[in-house]
Amino acid sequence: MEKPKMESVWQRPYVNIFKHFKLEEWKKSTKEGDIAPVMDKTLKCTVYRIRGSIPAGNYIQLPKTTTQSLGLVGRYLYILFKPIVSKYFVVHFDAVTEVFVD
Length: 102
Known about the structure:
This protein is mainly beta. The protein has one helix and four strands; from the N terminus they run H-E-E-E-E. The protein has one helix at 17-20; strands spanning 30-32, 34-40, 45-51, 59-61. The strands form two sheets. The protein has a two-stranded antiparallel ribbon. A two-stranded antiparallel sheet has the order 2-3. The chain is globular and about 45 Å long. The mean pLDDT is 78.
């Protein structure tokens, strides 16, 4: 197995992109609609409540523009969310990957 490069070590074993992008400042991300930070007592961290009658009008976008990159190097992605009973939700994820050969 290949040894990780030094610039990617900080992402091992995982990275919280909300913390990394300082989501609460909204400089490197975009929010639209009814988005509110909420302290989750079970997880013991800030989570973001997204609600509204139209899912396409209430979202968080990372990074802010399509010309920016998240710069993630991990092999896996996981999304933790808690849907509200009897409410519709959409998870939209676009990924562009590159294979680097040393």
